[in-house]
Amino acid sequence: MLGYHMIQTSLVKLVPAHHFYQQLLKAVDFRFVRPLFEPFYSTMGRPSLDPIVFIKLQLVAHLENITSDRKLLELANLHLGIRAFLGYALEQPLPWHSTLSRTRQRVPISVFEACFTHIIGLCIHKGLVSGHTQVIDSAYIKANASMSRLKRKPAIWSSETTSSLSKPNAPRLTASVDRLQHIHRFHKNIKKAAPNKTGQLFSNLTHYSPTDPDARIAFKTGKPRQLAYMTSVSVDAAQHVITHIQAGSADRRDSRNLLPIIDTTQERLREFGVAICNVVADAGYSSGENYEQLEIRGLTGFVSPHGKYKDERPGFHYDVKSDSYTCSQGKRLAFDKLLVDKQGNPKKRYLAKASDCKDCDLCEPCKGKKASEKRLHHTYYKAQYERMVERLSSRFGKRMMRIRSATVEPVLGSLINYYGLRQINTRSREAAAKVMYVAAMAYNLKKYLRFTSVEQSGMVIALPVPDQFYYILIYFCNSHPSYRTGLGNVQTNCGLEFAHFPDPFYNSYGCCTT
Q1: Is the dihedral of CA 439, 441, 444, 446 positive or negative?
Q2: Checking DSSP bridges between strand 300-303 and strand 278-281, what pairing results, if any?
Q3: pTM for the complete prediction?
């Protein structure tokens, strides 16, 4: 006869020891969370949610690629492994989803950052982080706001305010008159080209989101515009551990975020005695000021110049000592003065003499019809640009750029597709930063569990070196003159003896000579 029968069991018996959450529970001591949350918990009233349970639930959400607190608790109620990870028995009720939301809102961002730093410390102590090379990149994360709810910004002199007293006033229109005229002309051209389409081109200069004022309109070629946040990450090249992550405005250039990311990453790694040597990023982080500041900080940068930079002027030769140009006719263009363009970038202007250009056969096609003399401009940071171009064209520079594409791009793709960062369900940039910190913690913890150092890998078997190795080594020494300084260096670096080489090759190549 079928019926219900009482069975006495426990989660320890039901969840196997090799389960992921059981391994995570054994590898990481989550008691470090309590001192960080203690200043923000009251000692009076009803007991609050245990901070360890809160952090564990946030980690589970990103490890399971869940962006909703309701779905997270639904899964935790059914998943025995998650219950055992949280420390809840079968009969104990889990906290409400609203408790998670309120706790996330009330705990400051510094606590999440401290938890993230602690996880990085665990990775450093286990040997996952070398700190030598940091790779930086960014991506757009969709915000919890709709483009259809955008509103136009009121003018500075307008007295319009929002009707709700609980919300702040709308951001004012601060764009210049020239910029607004350019936007209006762009709108007219769109309507003229496609009069039947009802779409509208929105800009951060003229519109804002009342739902989430911190979200910005993001634009990428070939993709529709959306309200988003910018997530910037710094990844260690050794084992692809995230050493820094931050939430920024989607309308801010990557080049303005490079130095703050480097400074924060350096300060965090310095606490554990780790130093940074190389910084690798794509052309979006390129600027002369960044190149100069990297050199001042003693860092070697590998950041590709953007497409607008011109290292050469056809028909003109630049002399570094005299800081002047010489045209194809032998006339000199001396430095005139330092200018600042509309974007705020400093430039140096060089002028030729009007008398030299007047008698030149190439006068009009060279200087134009209206100008009285030839003028040339180049960036104030030309020397820094040239050093960067030379560094990137070297063999080591090309290798570093290959490391960039193989390091940071898979990390960002994993965060977006598998660690719950495809959309930010919270509102405000501070709340988005908290979500990003927890996602980076979940990613690093999975790296932490999967990593096995050489000391922990067990017995290592040493195989004999094949004879072909010596032939290749001799060929390498003779084909690269910079390395042919006698086999004293080869012997020191590789641990080889001269007697190991076959006699015919030893005598014919003269490897014993210095």
Answers
A1: negative
A2: parallel
A3: 0.80
State the Cα–Cα distance between residues 210 and 215, nearest whole angstrom: 10
**CB within 8 Å of 100: residues ≥ 6 apart:** 49, 54, 57, 58, 69, 72, 73
Helix-then-strand count for the chain, H and E: 19, 13
CA-nearest of 327, 329, 330 to 316 is 327
- Give the CA dihedral 207, 213, 214, 220, nearest 10 degrees: -30
C-alpha pair distances (Å), 216 with each of 142, 176, 205, 318, 427: 10, 19, 10, 43, 12
Enclosing domain of residue 25 = 11-107
Q: How far is CA 290 from the centre of its chain?
A: 15
User: Which tokens in the block code for residue 328?
Assistant: 């194809």
φ and ψ at residue 331, rounded to 5 degrees: -90, 145
In a domain, 24, yes or no: yes
Q: How many domains does the chain have?
A: 2
Which amino acid is it at 93?
P
Question: 62-82 pLDDT, tens per residue?
Answer: 999 998 999 999 999 888 889
- pLDDT for 267 beyond 60: yes
Of the residues 49, 82, 107, the one at which a domain ends: 107
